[in-house]
């Protein structure tokens, strides 16, 4: 009888340990759910304090000079060549990356536009169009438009994804964006600090 009692006790102890483990696990799950709900509410407090986005006035830069153009690769499907005027590149306090885009077409034409990209919404806007005499004409209907992927002429999505925006945020600096334009979008290809 004594041996049976010891076996029963061991069995009861094992069951008690299992119940304790399951109970502890349930307590952790409940606590985790409660913490998650509190975190969500805490984060929502900050979201409510966010001011609505307001675009700053875009100042049209000087017309681009050939010497300040930086070529970038927009994919092999397009016969055109694409450039950004390094002097015009800026990152505004409103989070908009502004730049002058120069497209030299396969047919010999040159298209010049002053544009902006909103990294947080993946949108693009044309502020002004370049004229052949080196002057600017303000865009007639400057509206933010969603940047879509195109097989040909995918320069806007390339600028957005490879050069100007990281995880929906603009690059940290104009210098960093220019390095990417000059040396390519691969982080390994950037010059390393000494």
Helix/strand layout:
Blueprint: H1 2-49, E1 69-72, E2 81-85, E3 90-91, E4 96-104, E5 110-118, E6 123-130, E7 136-138, E8 145-146, H2 155-164, E9 165-166, E10 169-170, H3 174-183
Antiparallel strand pairs: 1-2, 2-4, 3-4, 4-5, 5-6, 6-7, 6-8, 9-10
Structure overview:
With 194 residues, this protein is of the alpha+beta class. It folds into 2 domains: 1-48; 66-187, no CATH class. The chain has helices spanning 2-49, 155-164, 174-183; strands spanning 69-72, 81-85, 90-91, 96-104, 110-118, 123-130, 136-138, 145-146, 165-166, 169-170. Strands 1, 2, 3, 4, 5, 6, 7 and 8 form an 8-stranded antiparallel sheet that branches. The radius of gyration is 29 Å and the shape is elongated. The protein starts with a helix and ends in an 11-residue tail after the last helix.
């Amino acid at each position: 009888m004594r041996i049976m009692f010891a076996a029963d006790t061991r069995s009861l102890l094992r069951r008690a340990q299992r119940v304790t483990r399951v109970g502890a696990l349930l307590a952790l799950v409940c606590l985790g759910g409660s913490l998650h709900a509190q975190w969500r509410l805490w984060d929502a407090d900050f979201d409510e304090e966010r001011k609505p986005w307001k675009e700053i006035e875009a100042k049209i830069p000087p017309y681009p000079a050939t010497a300040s153009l930086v070529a970038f690769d927009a994919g092999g499907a397009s016969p055109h060549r694409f450039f950004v005027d390094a002097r015009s590149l800026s990152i505004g306090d409103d989070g908009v990356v502004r730049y002058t885009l120069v497209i030299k077409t396969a047919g010999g034409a040159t298209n010049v536009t002053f544009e902006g990209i909103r990294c947080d919404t993946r949108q693009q806007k044309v502020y002004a169009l370049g004229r052949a005499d080196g002057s600017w004409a303000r865009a007639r209907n400057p509206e933010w438009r969603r940047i879509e992927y195109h097989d040909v002429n995918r320069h806007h999505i390339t600028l957005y994804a490879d050069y100007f925006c990281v995880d929906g945020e603009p690059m940290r600096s104009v210098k960093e964006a220019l390095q990417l334009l000059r040396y390519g979008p691969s982080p390994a290809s950037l010059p390393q600090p000494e």
